[in-house]
Specification:
Length: 370
């Protein structure tokens, strides 16, 4: 198969869909890989490095999109990209369609078969292609919170870990999945007082064992969320209902009762966010303030550490990408986990939660993929 890797064009996004190491694997499996010039600049992989890995270098995105049978990217296609997609082509990337009706319409109109990294599953029902970026984002969330807590950034002027004789920050993590666990690990490592809230009791039990009492676990309810959030210095939004918009756990009214200069880091912003007052920001302008509470809502946090992130992402996507390159959409029908990744195919929505969130009709992949 001819596989295309365009340069990412979203603001401040420096990751790349295939690393040179991954390109070698595709080429070794007999595929042709076309990489847009400069696609690897953000991870210090020049065109020559891709050339040595066996890729052909394309002069423009237009060339990549028109020649490739499968496009492998990182972020959801931007408008100029989705206009270049066509029926019969596979798009393998993050999509986050539930809160994004415009992109969904664009993809439906293009006729492309779009497989979303974030809804591909594994045998344990987890999301293996979301996990590596969630690990990165969870760890970064505490760095972002530490930065925003500084007085000159509008924060409370608290050091996350405190010092002997002065208490540390209170960090509340909403959602104890991958993002939440890695955020809790970093916060606890810095010496913060950490609470993690989740709806899943089995998950809370796992976290209790994992952190050996170093982190408080609490069942997520209206009452516990209020109690924790009102006394927090930092709240990390890390909930996920797969394929659906994030539940708004913290309302505008609740925000008014939070400490002035407290920081919320809404990592779940790519699914619409779990604070009513969140809206997506970029690395260029990452924060804004509402009712004295600093909001950090960057939708592509791992993009700021592209070297770590691109390698972590490729480690996870490689086997699925190779299966798609070898078998095309047959791979989707053969593998129930890859099938869960198919969000849009030739103008119809093939993921139930995405269809429900957007109020659009849903069709099973096996009915429409032939
Ligand atoms: N902003 C970014 O750059 C970035 C990067 C990576 C991931 N994310 C996003 O972060 C979010 C979390 O991802 P994840 O990999 O940790 O997901 P996950 O599935 O591992 O964890 C989500 C957790 O939320 C819990 N949950 C669901 N509803 C809840 C509720 N009402 N109260 C409390 N907990 C609840 C679930 O039980 C689960 O444990 C996703 O939206 C993901 O897309 C954003």
């Amino acid at each position: 198969m001819r596989v295309g890797v365009p340069r990412e064009i979203k603001s401040q996004e420096y990751r790349v869909g295939l690393t040179p190491g991954a390109v070698r694997e595709y080429v070794a499996a007999g595929h042709e890989v076309l990489v847009e010039t400069g696609a690897g600049d953000g991870i210090n992989a020049a065109d020559e490095v891709y050339g040595r890995a066996g890729a052909k270098i394309a002069a423009s995105a237009a060339e990549v999109f028109s020649a490739a049978e499968m496009i492998v990217k990182v972020k959801e296609p931007q408008e100029e990209e989705w206009k270049r997609l066509r029926p019969g082509q596979i798009l393998f990337t993050y999509l986050h369609l539930a809160p994004d009706p415009r992109q969904t319409k664009g993809l439906m109109e293009s006729g492309v078969s779009a497989i979303a990294y974030e809804t591909v599953t594994d045998a344990r029902g987890h999301l293996p292609l979301l996990a590596p970026m969630s690990e990165v984002a969870g760890r970064l969330a505490i760095e972002a919170a530490g930065q925003s807590l500084k007085r000159f950034n509008g924060g409370r002027g608290i050091l996350i870990g405190g010092v002997p004789g002065v208490p540390p920050a209170r960090v509340v993590v909403l959602g104890g999945g991958v993002v939440g666990t890695h955020a809790a690990r970093m916060a606890a490592g810095l010496g913060a007082e950490v609470s993690v809230l989740d709806r899943s009791l089995p998950r809370l039990r796992e976290l209790d064992e994992l952190f050996e009492g170093r982190v408080r676990t609490r069942y997520s309810s209206l009452a516990t969320i209020e109690e924790e959030v009102f006394s927090a210095d930092v709240v990390i939004g890390a909930v996920l209902v797969p394929g659906a918009s994030a539940p708004k756990l913290v309302t505008r009214d609740m925000l008014k009762q939070m400490k002035r200069g407290a920081v919320v880091v809404d990592v779940a912003i790519d699914q619409g966010g779990c604070f009513e007052t969140s809206h997506a920001t970029t690395h260029a302008h990452p924060v804004y303030e509402v009712d004295g509470v600093i909001h950090y809502c960057v939708a592509n946090m791992p993009g700021s550490v592209p070297l770590t992130s691109s390698h972590a992402l490729n480690n996870a996507t490689l086997p699925f990408g190779l299966a798609l390159a070898a078998r095309g959409l047959k791979a989707v029908l053969e593998d129930p986990h890859l099938k869960n990744g198919l969000n849009v195919h030739r103008g119809v929505i093939t993921h139930p939660a995405v269809a429900k969130s957007l109020g659009l009709p849903f069709r099973h992949a096996e009915e429409v993929v032939v």
